[in-house]
Amino acid sequence: MPHRLLAALFRPIDIAWLVVFRVGTGVLLALEMAGSLALGYYKEYTQPKFHFSYLWFDWLPHWPPAVGIGLHAGAVAAGIAVAAGWRYRLNAFLLTICYTLLFLAEQTRYINHLYLYCLLAAWLCVLPAHRAASTDARAGRVAPSATVPAWVRYVLIFQLSVVYFYAGLAKLNADWLLARPLSVWLAPKATYPILGPVLGHWLTPWVMSYAGLAFDLLAAPLLLWRRTRPWMFVVAVVFHLSNVIIFGLGTFPWFSLMMTGCVYFPPNWPRRVRGLRRWLSARVPVAAVHWSPNRLAIPRHAGLLLSGLGLYAAVQLLVPLRSLLYPGDVHWTEEGHHFAWHMMLRSKSGQISFRVVLPDGRTQVIAPSTYLTPRQCNKLAAQPDLIIQFAHFLAEEYRQRGLGPVQVYADSYLQLNRRPPCPLVSPSLDLAAQSRTLAPAPWILPAPAAVEAHKQ
Length: 456
Known about the structure:
Layout: H1 3-10, E1 12-14, H2 16-39, H3 43-46, H4 65-84, H5 88-105, H6 112-126, H7 135-139, E2 147-149, H8 150-170, H9 174-177, H10 180-186, H11 196-199, H12 204-224, H13 229-247, H14 252-264, H15 274-281, H16 302-318, H17 330-333, E3 348-357, E4 363-366, H18 374-380, H19 384-400, E5 407-416, E6 422-423, H20 449-452
Antiparallel strand pairs: 1-2, 3-4, 3-5, 5-6
Helix pairs in contact: 2-4, 2-14, 4-5, 5-6, 8-12, 8-14, 8-16, 10-12, 12-13, 13-14
């Protein structure tokens, strides 16, 4: 790699932005888990009799209630410690472990921003965000520094740009361009005070659909260009605050605003903000960041580091595209939906029941609500991967009761964006005999013609 490019990646930049990012990330990730405890969402990890798992992670144990609550509380404590920069490396690691274990513990709790939080918590483990304005630096546990290598900022710019761009790319489908999802979501909000008439107007879903598409696709390039950056940030503020007002979405809009401001603006931007200037001046000395490409010493581990960054970038760029390898529409089959930044793209509801055929020919009809929480039942009816997991669970349940081997069939009907219900999986295939793999599932029925228009 040319020396000048290496020098650009390792040149020193002001650490002020990274300090603000560390504090904001620690506080908001702590608030996310504190909200889960306060609102009772943690029960989705502790109450179900059966937990859905991601492919290859079914070996994870089902946590008892005390462990589930402890992981939430641990994430809160670790987030606060990260924000303060106290035992930073240890607490960033604990924050990553708590978030990742909870994320993997229950597939029906998949939310894109929780996936993003797991990734960023892992990055905090390796980024030197505690070199200034931290209790570690003040106590002498780490050598203070007023600068960080430029690649630290570029990594976070890349990560957020991937989220924005792929969220926009996913909106390039027929239903979004026809404003179907937002028409479904905004209709019940027509009775809201003040905003109700606006949200219920027939034109509003169209405006919001195309505004959201344009924002996601253009956010990264216009934030990277110095001339358009301030204007695009104003648009980002309006976009994310609109999501707060209309949809809520927890900490994610606030986190997106915080991270957008931190990474896209010049590294020393916090020193220009009146509320931060005094706080930073007492904790982070202004550094001389003048450098010469010919005089900058490149670390010996630079090649290994850049190889790791390149591998990470390749994974982040390729994994969201895997849905293109599957036949049919991803919003119907869900194959390739996870880890692809498909955020609020479709409205799905359905009904499902299971038929268990015993060896003697008798048939028993199983209602999923016998084993699952209401949220799990709602997700089950819409996601084929959950359907086959539950079918395998029923087969194992009957085997352990000495009633197997059994055959398991599913009768499912799914509505996508308020279309008429249609069968989702084949009612004549024994799901207990089907394997769960990355390959296209042969037991998922083709989407109705109106839905297949997505792919045409």
